[in-house]
Write a structure and sequence with these properties.
heterodimer, A: Immunoglobulin-like, 0% helix, B: seven-stranded mixed sheet
């Protein structure tokens, strides 16, 4: 069993739709949860991170963590064609700088 | 404001050849990492370093070597290239601290034939 599971998609949505992405994990020691965005032929860049359980909102993006279910989500509201990218979840334990990544979900927002 | 730079951008190697992938960061980060990314597989950690002179193996180190003689540079060496090493390689760096964003370079696309 992989430590972090993420459906690779691909996911195609019309402009303005809500995009819902999620990851599950098996290691209960994970405390920090991140979402990276990777445009085609570019390196990943950090989009959001949350600590432990709860929600975090940043503009059109909302990250949720449910540690009891070992499940994290990223929602993109009012999606735009510029949101077309691969989204990777990543997580790490407290005082650990090494990240465990999901496989990434490729999202296409159609104009 | 260069961040993390990687050279070359693309490379084609023949089986058995060797090469060094270069990585440099100008953010004075102590931590540096090498990942490989294969389609549908996410990022796998090859090697990492917590400072000059200190390196350690990640998840998939076989067939690779690293060195870290300065804070800025973290080259990755491939000896006796094999087709299984065809991948996109990313270098990243981060500062110390409890939650530290990893900054990634643009990647090197390597094909071994």
């Amino acid at each position: 069993q992989k430590e972090v599971e993420q459906d690779p998609g691909p996911l195609s949505v019309p402009e303005g739709a809500i995009v819902s992405l999620n990851c599950t994990y098996s290691n209960s020691a994970f405390q920090y949860f991140m979402w990276y965005r990777q445009y085609s032929r570019k390196g990943p860049e950090l989009l959001m991170y949350t600590y432990s359980s709860g929600n975090k909102e940043d503009g059109r993006f909302t990250a949720q963590v449910d540690k009891s279910s070992k499940y994290i989500s990223l929602f993109i509201r009012d999606s735009q064609p510029s949101d077309s990218a691969t989204y990777l979840c990543a997580m790490t334990k407290r005082n650990d700088y090494k990240l465990s990544f999901g496989a990434g979900t490729t999202v296409t927002v159609r104009a | 404001n260069a961040g993390v730079t990687q050279t070359p951008k693309f490379r084609i190697l023949k089986i058995g050849q060797s090469m060094t992938l270069q990585c440099t960061q100008d953010m004075n980060h102590n931590y540096m990492y090498w990942y490989r990314q294969d389609p549908g597989m996410g990022l796998k950690l090859i090697y990492y370093s917590v400072g000059a002179g200190i390196t350690d193996k990640g998840e998939v180190p076989n067939g690779y070597n690293v060195s870290r003689s300065t804070t800025e540079d973290f080259p990755l060496r491939l000896e006796l290239a094999a087709p299984s090493q065809t991948s996109v390689y990313f270098c990243a760096s981060s500062s110390t601290g409890e939650v530290s964003e990893q900054y990634f370079g643009p990647g090197t696309r390597l094909t071994v034939t």
